């Protein structure tokens, strides 16, 4: 039986490569200002973006190094060497003390920028957790607890960020307010469905259309267990985010430089060149991972019954409502649900992975990116007497795929354009 794993990995790698800072950033960088360039970066691609900016300004444009400075805050294990822009590695998905200090320093650097200076803000997915600046009256521990509750709730990333923005001194346009004397140019890699600017890293430099009332409604919707101090903060009008028309945005521009759709298109191109008819389900899928897997399994089984050779591809960001005590992430849970539904179909294979290289996990650079399933998975399931339904019930996809040897391990990719899922039907 043909091994489709190299092709599955090539499809995934093409999606990642299409959004890598080394490829995409330099064409979008603004001209040198009269004054200094102060680079403020956050997210899983922050250090790679900062290094690419340094190459552009220092090596290509021969800028005096004294005129370039800044701070890039990225996830632990995602740092790269830089020359003038300092790198701090911080917690994700749950913030830590390093992110707390980095956010305070970022705000201070923004406040120091003058009218002739350029604040170059480089954002990628993960910035919400990396830049942690709790609202007045909310402790760091209380903010961490809110993040944990949101992560376990099954709330989509957009709703999570609505709450985060209203408990912050840097999100929801507040970084722009801190640096409003300078010109502000934000370049962002989108990791959110529909590429909503105010949702990427919780929109630190753009107007926020959501309100305190929206944040309170989400807390109620998911029955989040939060401290009284957090409730008071969400009732305090001083914590309303910055809106359209705020002076913070008078000299601010925002540009998306990488989108999930472009990465999905790159993945589709590889599948097409390999001889598959492709079914593209879009780059903005949301929903419970196991429910989406069930729908995709139906599509695969239908194609197989009709004798078609197809590749079913999708992007977006799925969620998991955690009720068990296991380990995993949305991509692993999706793959596990697929394994349960496709175990009797040896000519179907699939990959589900997060383009940042980490799917769920505990914030380690060695966390799996997702999982792969094929006929070998089904054979090991049978020989080891593994019941995928039992692992699903405990949200323990990592243990299942550790046993079968099917975890997708990529390491940090230094970008983040959501998830890529592909099912090959031969």
UniProtKB/TrEMBL annotation:
Coiled coil residues, start to end: none
> Which UniProt keywords are present, listed alphabetically?
ATP-binding, Kinase, Nucleotide-binding, Transferase
A Pfam entry, by short name: DUF4147
What SUPFAM superfamilies is this protein classified in?
GckA/TtuD-like
Describe the location of the MOFRL-associated domain by residue ranges: 8-234
Residue ranges annotated for the MOFRL domain, each copy included: 310-419
Q: Which GO terms describe its molecular function?
A: ATP binding; glycerate kinase activity
InterPro entries, alphabetically? GK-like_C_sf, GK_N_sf, MOFRL, MOFRL_assoc_dom, MOFRL_protein
- Please give the GO cellular component terms listed in this UniProt entry: cytoplasm
The protein's name:
Glycerate 2-kinase
